[in-house]
Amino acid sequence: MLSLNVGLRSYMEETRIKVEVKVKPGGATRSLEVKKGAKVKDLLKSLGYTLGTAVAVREGEVLSEDEALVDGDRLEVYEAISGGLGEV
Amino acid sequence: MKCSRCGLKAVIYLRYARLALCHLHLEEYLAKRVVDAVKHGAPIGKDQLIVVAVSGGKDSAAAASLLSLVKDQLRFKLASVHIDLGIPGYSEENRKTALLLAEKLSLPLAVLDLKEVLGFNVVEAARRAKRPVCSVCGLLKRYLLNLSASLTGATRLATGHNLDDLAAYAVKGFLTHEETPISKLIGHTGTVDGLIGRLRPLIEVGEYEALVYALSSKLPFNHEECPYVNRRGLEFRAKEFLALLEEERPGFKLAFLRGLLKKKVEVKAEGELRKCSMCSMPTSSEVCAFCRLIYRVKGSYDTVEKVHKYVEEKTRELRSLI
Known about the structure:
The structure holds 2 protein chains of 2 kinds.
Chain A: H1 2-15, E1 16-24, E2 28-35, H2 40-46, E3 54-58, E4 61-63, E5 73-79
Chain B: E1 12-14, E2 19-21, H1 23-39, E3 49-53, H2 58-74, E4 77-84, H3 91-105, E5 109-113, H4 114-118, H5 122-129, H6 133-152, E6 156-158, H7 163-175, H8 180-183, E7 197-199, H9 207-216, H10 234-248, H11 252-262, E8 274-275, E9 282-283, H12 289-298, H13 302-321
Parallel strand pairs in B: 3-4, 3-6, 4-5, 6-7
Antiparallel strand pairs in B: 1-2, 8-9
Helix pairs in contact in B: 1-2, 2-9, 5-6, 5-12, 6-13, 7-10, 7-11
């Protein structure tokens, strides 16, 4: 049983990567584990965003939704939907 | 993902157009949309002036940048106006980013500071008027932007309203049985009796595209939200609903808006336009909504003249920079 648990943990470690995101507006930060090979769109989906409503940025560089995530990524996620319409 | 046009690294995938674009080709793509928006409707003559309202947010930053990019091609002049609403913890950053944006784009800018004119901010104005902050904010911005564009000699007042704003506005209008909002969606309208015609350069540019463009262009903008924004408001919910439809049916929002604009919607006149007996600006009533608000918050109409003198001074400075 012990060896099965160790094996499972090691498998999980090999197949999961850690990503930290800071959401704007608000600046809330979250640490997440996603599948190795996951793309930006997978991350945004797991954060609850509809496609085309949030943008991920790595070190000031805008990432397209098909960009692969890497272990230890620290990303900023900008929400596109803004509130009031002001004076239309 | 590589740019469909040049093979460089893409910053965006436009699902509805099946296009992946790098920053430069996104800019080119959006600039074409803006050129179409400027050309659509009432024509803008050679060397005429467009004043763009810059709030400090991503949309007006993108609108100002794209207008700046096409101004030589379309031979118009461009200047900008920012209104400092004095909202603590929010307006300072907006003012700072508006100044940085004007510097980056080499764009003449006038900053109108509400506290300098009224002696207090928009929140206090709303408290004194016993009205919601957003309602007073909208009224003040509408009036001051129109007045400053008019005094600067502009033929159009451009705002950062994008495709999502306008589609959500239309949905809200439908849900609340208001017919007039749809008539307001026209890309731009002509100037009538001191009422400067509106130009919405981002009418066919989505909020997501504007955000990616602002980020990849490294435009200065404030992405924090106004503390008075209502995320449970109908506009916000309409945007979420439209985003879900767009995800399932790429191109839906654009088709929806284009369909609306093709419709011959009769604009219901709210009453014949005449001059306000206090400020001489166009209104459908004896005294305009701005002057009535000033009376409620200041107890007299004296401040109206002070506001006009202040805006005249600021726009004189702006004109000297154009």
